[in-house]
Design goal:
The chain is of the alpha/beta class and 432 residues long. The protein has two domains: 300 residues, Zn peptidases (Aminopeptidase), CATH 3.40.630.10; 114 residues, Alpha-Beta Plaits. The protein contains twelve helices and 15 strands. Strands 1, 2, 3, 4, 5, 6, 13, 14 and 15 form a nine-stranded mixed β-sheet that branches. It has a four-stranded antiparallel β-sheet with strand order 9-11-7-12, with helices on one face. A two-stranded antiparallel sheet has the order 8-10. A hairpin with a 5-residue loop joins strand 1 and strand 2. The longest helix is centred in the last third of the chain and has 21 residues. The chain is elongated, with a radius of gyration of 24 Å. The structure holds zinc ion (ZN). The site of zinc ion has 6 residues, from loops. Zinc ion binds next to loops.
Length: 432
Amino acid sequence: MSISSIPAMPRMTTLDYQAFDTLFATSDNIGATADGGLNRLTASQEDKAMRDAFCAWLTEHDFDVRIDAIGNIFGLMTLQEGAPWVLCGSHLDTQPLGGRFDGVYGVTAAASTIAALVRQLQDLPQQSKYNLAVVNWTNEEGARFQPSLIGSSVFTGAVELDTALNCLDANGITLGEALEEIGYRGDALFPLPVANYLELHVEQGPHLETQQKQIGVVTGTWAALKWQVTFHGEQNHTGPSLMQVRRDALLAAAQTIVAVREAAGQHPDVLHTSVGRLETTPNSPNVVTREATVFIEFRSADEALLHQLHESFSQKMQSIAQSTATEVDLSRYQFRPCRQLDTALTQKALNQAEKIGLSAMPLRSVAGHDAISLSYHCPSSLIFVPSTGGVSHNEREFTATADLHRGLDFLIAMLCELCFPAGFRSESGEAA
Ligand SMILES: [Zn+2]
C-alpha cells in the first residue's frame, strides 16, 4: 500500500484544543476565588453548578450520562457493544482556596479527548477493542469529608457505600445528605466493567519542571498514615480557673503538632509530615478548650517507618495526655500502603510518549490519587504534566496551556493504542 493511503492516527486538532480550553475555562468560573483559585468543596452549591455544567457538556457531546449512588458521574461512549471499558477521569472537587488544575484537568482532558476521538472515528470507523468513558469521582480531596478518594473507593468496593454515605462534614452533615441536597445521589452503584483506567493530572511537585520533561509516568506512590487524634480536657474559664488544675485539650494538641513536625526533621527527605487541620470545642478566646482534634499526616515510601511512627506516636501522645491531664483517643486512623502501578501499562505509556515525540520520565507520586484506588481494580496509569514551581493545593497552582495540550496529545495516543492495538485501519482494511 502506498504511504498516502495509510490513515493518520487520530490526534488532537486545533478545534479539539479549543473545545478543551472552553470546557476547562467553564470550571475556572465556578467557585472562583478573588485570588485566581477555586473553592469547590464536595457536594457544595459550587460543586453542583460544576457538575451541572459538566453533565450538560457531556449530553451535548452525545455521551450517555450516569450518576451512581455515591455521586460519581460517568459519561459513556459506546464503540463496541458489550466490550469492557477504558475509563479516564479524575475529580472536579477542590480544596478550600484550591487551584484551578488539580483534578479538573484530568476530567476535562478525558472528556475532550474522548469526544475528539469519537468524532474522528465517524469519518473512518474502526473495530474498537473497548468502549470509552469519562468519570468525575466524588470527594477525591477529602477536604469536606474524610477520607479522601471516597467515590473511587466505593466504585472499587474498597469502601462500603453505607460507610461512605455516612461520612460527616464539620457541621455534622452526612455525605449522603449533601449529595441528596444537590441532586447527585443516584439510586445504585454502577458496575462498569473496566479494562484500564487512565488519569491525567498536574504533577503538584517540581520534578518534571526541574528535569525539563513534558510527561511523567507514575510508577507508584508513597504510603500514608492519616490520623485524627482527639484530646479531651475540661471546659473552664480562662481567667479565674487555677493554672494547675486546668485540663487544656488545645495545649495537648499544640505539643502534638510540634512533635509531628520534629519527626520529619529526624528523617529528612524520606518522611513528609503535617497537621493541616485543628478543630477545637468550644473555640472561644476565653474558654479553656474542652476538646481538640488534630488531623495528622505522615507520608513516606518506607512503610516500616510509618508503622514505627504509629507506635512511637501512640506512646508520645499518651504521655502528652498525661502531662496535660487530658485523655486521648487514638483510634481513628487510616493506613494507605505504597502502591505499585501496573508495570506493563507504565511501560506502554512511556513508549507511547516517546512515539509521539514527548519527553517523558517515570516518577513516584507522594500524593494519593483516584488512579491509586482504581489500581486495585484494574491496570491503571497515572500521568503527570508539569506544575509551575511545584505549587499545589494553592490558588497560585499553574500549568501552561501548552503543557495541558501535550497531555491531551498523549491521552489520545494512549486511547488509540489501547482501543486499536493492531493499528488504525484504512477503508481498505490495511493497518497503519
Ligand atoms: Zn487531584
